[in-house]
Amino acid sequence: MMWVVDWTLPARVALSRLHWLDAARIDEAVERFAKAGEGDFYRLPEDDAVTLRMRVGSYRVRLTRDVRERVLRIWWVYRV
Fold first, then answer.
1. How many domains does the chain have?
2. I want to staple 3 with a disulfide (CB 3.0 to 4.6 A). Which of 25, 34, 56, 76 is the partner?
3. Domain of 59, in residue numbers
4. pLDDT in tens, 56-80
5. Cα(11)–Cα(67) distance, rounded to whole angstroms?
6. What pTM did the predictor assign?
7. Domain with 13 in it: what CATH number?
């Protein structure tokens, strides 16, 4: 199942401020999820049905899935 990845402006800015190795790891994890559905993701009780959070080391990627258009929209990248 292939998904199209759409990085929003806040996500691109956050990614650009990270060390390039961390940014590359995050991008690789998102692409792996888009292509194969693999990844360390979870949903909190307060999240809606389309929102996911993905763990990539000490970073979290917040994204939504548009099932109809097959788009993963990346909203935020942050460190915990």
1. 1
2. 34
3. 4-79
4. 999 999 999 999 999 999 999 999 9
5. 20
6. 0.92
7. 3.30.2310.20
